[in-house]
Write a structure and sequence with these properties.
It contains 5 helices and 6 strands. It is of the alpha/beta class. α3 packs parallel to α4. The termini are far apart.
């Protein structure tokens, strides 16, 4: 069993030799345009096009919660579009759209792909942005489904300057003044 390796950096630019899979969470509504997917789309058009086609043709394929689609973007890099989010968060939502059972199923599929490719897995803290997941619930899933099966995993956190500049939707934020002690 290996441990999850944590780095400060950009998950779309994995620091590893050999085959790599960059994994992220998608919703089951076909929406692509906020969050980590924007960083993916800035580097490669194929994952978005494949996801949209997969969703569009969902009556004839396996697109559903828990499904994982692998898209090759370079000779040694793939993107894993993992459907682990039901819908999107709105002001009328009663809870976060993350579905932990679907994430577990996605990670199982991802483990099979990574093992077949002899690839390491690279990801941001999946599901903790727009999907509303708690990392203390996602991390054990990664451990049981990936590192517990000797799949090397690296989780990337954005550097503080970049994290302050971009919110979880990939848009600039306004800096809030620090709270004053009174």
């Amino acid at each position: 069993m290996t441990d999850i390796h944590y780095l400060t950096g950009d998950a779309t630019n994995p620091r590893a030799e050999g085959p790599k899979v960059i994994a992220h969470i998608c919703n089951d509504r076909g929406g692509w345009g906020r969050g980590f997917v924007l960083a993916i789309s800035r580097r490669w058009p194929e994952p978005e096009a494949a996801y949209r086609s997969w969703h569009h043709d969902r009556a004839a394929n396996d697109f559903e919660l828990g499904a994982t689609q692998l898209v090759q973007v370079t000779p040694d890099t793939w993107i894993a579009n993992m459907v682990g989010q039901h819908g999107i968060r709105t002001s009328r939502s009663s809870g976060p759209p993350i579905r932990y059972d679907a994430v577990r199923q996605c990670l199982r599929h991802l483990a099979a792909h990574a093992a077949r490719l002899a690839a390491s897995v690279h990801l941001p803290r999946i599901g903790t942005g727009l999907a509303g997941a708690r990392w203390d619930r996602i991390e054990p899933l990664i451990t049981s489904e990936l590192t517990g099966h000797d799949i090397p995993v690296t989780v990337y956190d954005l550097p503080p300057a970049r994290a302050d500049r971009d919110d979880h939707r990939g848009r600039p934020t306004r800096r809030r003044p620090a709270a004053r002690n009174r």
